[in-house]
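FORM 7B - TANDEM STRUCTURE REPORT

SECTION 1: FIRST PROTEIN
SEQUENCE AND C-ALPHA CELLS:
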Amino acid sequence: MVLVLGGRYLPHVVSSKLYGDRKKHGYTVIPNDPDWQEWDSRMPEIFEKTQTGIVGTTVNSAGYKQALRHISLDRKMIVEIGPGAMEHVKYWDGTPAKYIMIDRREAFLKQGAKKLDRLGIANEFILSEDLGRHPVEIKNESVDIVIAFYVLEHLLELDEALKEVFRILKPGGMLIGAIPAEGGLAWGLGRFLTTRRWFKKNTNIDLDKIICWEHPNFADDVCNALDRAGFNSKIVSWPLNVPIADLSLIHSFHCEKPC
C-alpha cells in the first residue's frame, strides 16, 4: 500500500501545477489536440532531453536496480511492456530464453530488437496501442516474468491491462518494475522545478494538459490495482522506503501470481 497526500489534498491552484489540471482536462487523450500532437511527435526527443541527464538517470536507475534485485532472467520467457530504450539491461542477472516486447511505438520496439539481437537473445515485438483494450496473442500461463518500467502510470485501462498480464503469467510468475511517485509532493515539486522549465523554454506544449493524459494514475491507484488483480505484491520506495508517496520519488514492485 502506498499513500498519496499531495495530489489528493492540496488546493487545486497548487495541485494543477504539480500534477496537471485534471479537473479541466480529464484523463482521456484527444488525438487531434495540438498540444498532444506536438508531444506525440516529439516524445523521443523530449525523453532524451529531460530523462537522460544526471538527475533523470539516477532516479530511473534506482527503480531498475531495486526491481531487478534478486531476480534471475536466465533461460526465462520474458515479456516487457513499454521497453523504451531498455536502459535496465545493464542490471540483468542471466540471459532470457526469449524476449517479447509490447509498445505502441514501433521505433522503440525496433531499437529494443537491435539491442537484444546484439546480445544474442531471441526476440519479437507486438505493436499494441493499449494493452487494456487490445489483448495480445500470447498463450495463457506461458510467461515467466513480465517487466513494466515506468509504464503502469500511463495505462488508463489499468485494471484490464493487469488482467492481461495475470493471464499470460505462469503460476508463480512475476510482474516486476517501477513507477514514479506520481501524486506525491516530492515528485510534483521535482517536475515543477526541472521538466516544466524545459517544456516552457523549448516547446509550445501545455504541460498541465499532457501530465493528465500521460499519467492518469497516481501511485496509489497503481498499487491498489495490483492488489485487485490478485497479485501478492511487495512495494519498495526510493529514496526513503516509507509507504508515503510524498516522501519518495520511485516505487518498485515485485508482484507474484499465486500458484
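SECTION 2: SECOND PROTEIN
SEQUENCE AND C-ALPHA CELLS:
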Amino acid sequence: AGAATAAVPRPQGPLTLDTFRDVARLQTNGVVNINTRKLVRRQRNDQFHEFFGDDFMERFFGPQGGGDRPRTQQSLGSGFIVDKAGYILTNRHVIEGADEIDVTFPDGKRYEAKIVGQDARTDVALIKIEPKGKLTPIPLGNSDVLEVGEWVMAVGNPFGLDQSLTVGVISA
C-alpha cells in the first residue's frame, strides 16, 4: 500500500490555535464512520423469574417468551482510509463479531465492508470496501521520529454525526 510510505505533512512555522484546524481540514475526506451490527442471543434470567414468577414479569415487562431471544447489537467507531483500493484501518473492538459492517464517508456515501484482518493484542483491524470513486488515503506516520513534548492530534468520526478532534502531547 502506497499510503504507508508517504510522508505525513507536518505544519511549518510556529504552532498556533489555527494549526489544529488546518491539519484537520487536510485529513477530513479519509476519516470514516463505522457502524456494525451483530445478532446476539440473550437468555432469560431464570433466577429472576423463579423469585418473582412469570405473572409479575409479564405485568411489568410484557410477555417474556421462553429460551433464547435474539436481538441486534450495534457498535459505532471510526476508521481511516490507508489505501486507494479501499482498505480501512480501525479498532478491533469496533468490528469484533460483526455480522454486518457499514462504512459512511463525510459526504454521506455508504459502503458495506468485509474484515481482512485483526489483532487482539494491539486492538487493530483492517477492513475493505469496494469503492465506486476516488478515495483519499491518510498516510501512516512514523512514531520513531516523534519526541516527548511534541503535539499530536487524532481526527475521528465515532458517532456518525460529524468529525471529532482530540489533541495531546507525547509523554513517553
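SECTION 3: OBSERVATIONS ON SECOND PROTEIN
The first helix runs from residue 17 to 27.
Helices lie at 17-27, 46-61, 92-95.

SECTION 4: SIGNATURE
Preparer initials: ____
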